[in-house]
Design a protein that fits this description.
about 260 residues; alpha/beta; Alpha/beta knot; Trp Operon Repressor, Chain A; 2 domains; two-stranded antiparallel ribbon; 8 helices; about 30% helix; elongated; binds adenine; tRNA_MeTrfase_TRMD/TRM10; tRNA (guanine-N(1)-)-methyltransferase
Length: about 260
């Protein structure tokens, strides 16, 4: 997968050299290109922002440098088109489902903004020609979109074939489609069996795979009920077996 990022802080993306994503880059699974937006500014101060029309606080990113920068990235492969992802707290929520959708794309272009965001005509211009998604990573406001890009590249990158390897797998993750859809993963344990008086739940030492799977599902349901009621409400009743229904009813949520 090719990933381009245009930003006034390309140095922000140093973490993409580390760990799982760094290895995926070394192995050529992820081909990441970082660009300095100011390279496409025209004045001596390399200005990329200006005051907002209509007044108000803060500054807005000017359309011209963005347009020229995006055009230059698009020219890298005129036969193809990237999916453009504009991080903004006003966007659609970034979810595991969207991460999977992005993992199936050959080319992503991220345009993280600083200040109050990018002049909206940039999204209108490219949105008329290709897929442009405005995406938020959570209901809070960051100082800029760079961290949001790191979050999305990591979530997408670990889903690419060959990145996690066989020992790991994304199928048991929280939110993974299938059995874990709308469920949070439960608690995990490793050796020693007792630590500071806390014991590992006995069932996990039993070697009984069926009972362990059932216990894990119970814990996932419990944790979801405790931490994310709105996810519990979104559970598809078709995916609930008799035991699930009994547990949910005990927890005070009759299916
Ligand atoms: N830029 C600032 N805050 C953001 C958020 N929550 N998600 C994506 N981009 C952002």
């Amino acid at each position: 997968m090719r990933v381009d990022v245009i930003s006034i802080f390309p140095e922000y993306f140093a973490p993409l050299d580390v760990s799982l994503i760094g290895k995926a880059r070394e192995r050529g699974i992820l081909d990441i290109h970082l660009h300095q937006l100011r390279d496409w500014a025209r004045d001596v101060h390399r200005t990329v922002d200006d005051t907002p029309y209509g007044g108000g606080p803060g500054m807005v990113m000017k359309p011209e440098p963005w347009g020229e920068a995006i055009d230059a990235v698009l020219a890298a492969d005129p036969a193809a088109q990237p999916r453009i992802i504009v991080p903004t707290p006003s966007g659609v929520p970034f979810t595991q489902k969207l991460a999977m959708e992005y993992a199936a794309e050959p080319w992503l272009l991220f345009t993280p903004a600083r200040y109050e965001g990018i002049d909206s005509r940039v999204m209108a211009e490219y949105g008329a020609r290709m897929r442009v998604d405005e995406v938020g990573i959570g209901d809070y406001v960051l100082a800029g979109g760079e961290v949001a890009v790191l979050v999305m590249v990591e979530a997408v990158g670990r889903l690419l074939p060959g990145v996690l390897g066989n020992a790991h797998s994304a199928v048991d993750d929280s939110f993974a489609p299938g059995a874990m859809e709308n469920l949070l993963e439960g608690p995990v344990y490793t050796k020693p069996p007792e630590w500071r008086g806390h014991e590992v739940p006995e069932i996990l030492l039993s070697g009984h795979h069926g009972k362990i799977a059932r216990w894990r599902r119970d814990e996932a349901l419990r944790r979801t009920a405790r931490n994310r009621l709105e996810l519990l409400a979104a559970l598809d009743p078709e995916t609930l077996d008799k035991h699930d229904r009994k547990l949910l009813s005990e927890l005070g949520f009759p299916a």
